[in-house]
Amino acid sequence: MRIISLLKGKCPQCEKKDIFKSNGNLLKLQIPEMNNTCKNCNFKFEKEPGFFFGAMFVSYAVTAAEFIAVFIVSHFILGLSLLTSFFMVIIIAIILSGYNFRLSRSIWIYLFAKPKVKA
Ligand SMILES: [Zn+2]
């Protein structure tokens, strides 16, 4: 499934190898590191310099969607106070920041890549 490969950060063309070399480490303030090309099919992840500028907008959208989802769950479903819900949003945002970075880049790559047609 293509959406699963996207969420796992696999190559958009062959869906076999990882886009990212490392997941990054929030505690060490490391951002995830990318591979330049796919180790399986040689797909180039960064099509051109500055290609990932657009991924920032994807990241905003992903983060906003998560904020809204977390807020709705904590305030309206779990019945937590506004302040507690607000803290939940911040905590979740911090926990997910590394994943969001990878996810937004994956989404961006997938938007412009076509899967290789299997012979
Ligand atoms: Zn590949």
Automatic annotation (TrEMBL):
The chain crosses the membrane at residues 51-72, 78-99. It comes from the Bacteria. Keywords: Membrane, Transmembrane, Transmembrane helix. This is DUF983 domain-containing protein.
